[in-house]
Amino acid sequence: MMSDAQATLQFIVAIEVLGIAALPLANKLFRRLPDGGWAFAKIIGILLTGWLTWFLSSLHILAFSQLSISISLFIVTLFCWSTFARGETVASLKRAWLFIIVEETIFLIVMSVWTFVRGYSADIHGLEKFMDYGFMLSAMKTKYFPPLDHYLAGETINYYYFGHYLAGFTTKLARVPSDMGYNLQMSLIFALGSLEAFALAASVFWNANVTEKIRRLPWRSFIAGLIALLLINVFGNLHALIYYPGHVDTYWYPDATRFIEHTIHEFPIYSYIVNDLHGHVSDIPIVILGLAVVAIMILSFVKKKESNTKDTLRNLNLPLLLFLGFVIGTMYATNAWDFAIYLVVSGLALWTLNASSVRSDSIIKAYFSIATIVDTAMQSLILLLASVIPYIPFWLNLTPISQGIGLVPFGEQSPVWQVAILWGVQVPIAVLFIVWLYRRQTSSDKPFRSLVLKLAAKVFDLKVDIQKKLSGDTFEKELPSLNLGRLKIERVYVFLAIICVVSFLLILLPEVIYIRDIYPTYYRANTMFKFYYQAWIMLGIVCGVSIIKITQELNRRKSWWRFPYVGVVLFLVVAAGMYPIEAIDQGFGNFKGKRQSIAGTEYLSRFYPSDSQAIDWINANIDGQPVFAEAVGESYTDYAMVSANTGVPTVMGWPVHEWLWRGSYSEPMKPETHVQQETGQVDTVGGRVEDMRQFYETTDVNLAQSLIDKYHIEYVYVGSLEREKYNNLNTDKFLNMRLEIVYDKDNVQIYKAANN
């Protein structure tokens, strides 16, 4: 068996190779950043190589395999290095050596430490890990995408599976066992999320200062990046501060993500601990990459010249816009909620940039001029097309089950004090940033102060630099700015203001509207969950930059406000740091047990030793994805054990999840299934549950055979859960049917249909 150290090393090497493959492109896109794009090269390499492999398989050009991954990696490497590598690329990276060392250290530490910690709770067992692991295995076993739904025989996955596919992609590339690859992928997401959060916040702060001292000795940039890293990936909300002191013995860390009734309000560290490889987690590095591209788009914007007022693209970097579209398209295939959110972020950025090209003293006129609206609409259309076209195979094979938008009934909004516990750290700091930004742009006392300074100069015959006294920070005026009406706002602050405003909207919207799904009681749970998650990430960037920037300016001016500001911020950040201390301790069993391997399926040999051996036999001896019959149980239980740990499809896995993905329990599933098309019979989730009960319990050979034919069952599994679930289990009929026993050990039998 492969050791943890070897598996981790192989995984890290594979990711580094992908990063090097895409490094020239990352440098081309992010040359304005102090690290020359180093921090984003890894995720770009993963996405480009992973997408090309997936796309070729989706078009049935190359079957998904290690060979196709190698071919795609070669193509990506050749394209990036032949197209974008220049002498200035090397020079840019040489200048960035300090940032690169710090960032690579962060990546390796987070990846290695979290993988080591994971050894104390490595089981792919509980919550939705069965589903996630099954999706990942199905993707790894498929030849041509989309992958089969391991919980619904005969159908492909009707869900946002691209993050699970990427886990399978990196696991194949690294050549590590799949159950190790699952846990290593979670460590990778944590490491990439930390690396990118640090890099983006540090780079934004670095671009907010043009003095050579700060750029030569960027320790303040590093602190800004570190704060963002912690607030996004490590720290929690104020729940632990409020509830832990009075409930030391009974405090339960998941309560911090569920205490507003009938809602979900998770954040990354909770996701990392519970270890569910869900789309919102897989998307963390992707959305931070998207934010970085938006930041670069704002920083590199060139105002439209009067002679080119009809050219809507001359003032934008078209390749950058197309790449942003590709990243947002990846978000849709990974976690569709983020697709809409970051289209809004990008659209607002484009709208603001176009408004800055309009000469007007009015912000309203600048934003709503015909030229601004037309330019923004055309650019947004290009962005949308760039996001959809690369993922057309995914769009064509997915049927969304959302049922429109609903209004939150009056009186059922979240209690303000509970929302304050959730957002008591990020929102106050972000609000202070907006106030600071507004004051420094439109401070109403400047005319009065200017008059006082002029009078003082005349009376005392002093030579006073009035502008310097008014700004308190003359080099700020040299920063690249955008003119919006009468305001002149530095570009880095435009970026921060945009993501700040969108974050506030994401926090407020779940109190007004929700996206309809199948949950009647928890009707706004998913809306709050997905909106809050992205607000958490964006506000983490805002807080990391603004804390250090405002502190820097207050210190320069020797303002007395620096003491209460630093005191309040320090208290809030420390309070947020209370949560992970208790949560990590609880999530890993107080670290009292012996550390185990990160092989996540070893628990099977402890809990289900007989089934574990049978599952190992299936993985070793059965190729492809034949249909298995096995017991049907409730979601979040150990039922559908075979399909979840092999990736082979079963007739019905977790009914509630299929209900969620297919739209109904008792109505025909969407999209229409192959069973319904072939038989003309209504195919429902509930119908399959009943069919499996009858299949295992009936004594009627003809009925059992008809169900085998109906669902194209090739193997029948009879193990501990089948015997537990079906009290009237009858296996004698299998001896009278066209079935042969291919596995029989320790009270577990596997039958194979003779005609297969």
Automatic annotation (TrEMBL):
It comes from candidate division WWE3 bacterium. This is Chlor_Arch_YYY domain-containing protein. The chain crosses the membrane at residues 6-26, 38-57, 63-84, 96-117, 188-210, 222-244, 284-302, 314-333, 339-358, 370-396, 416-438, 492-513, 533-551, 563-581. Pfam families: DUF2298. Keywords: Membrane, Transmembrane, Transmembrane helix. The keyword Glycosyltransferase does not apply. Signal peptide: none annotated.
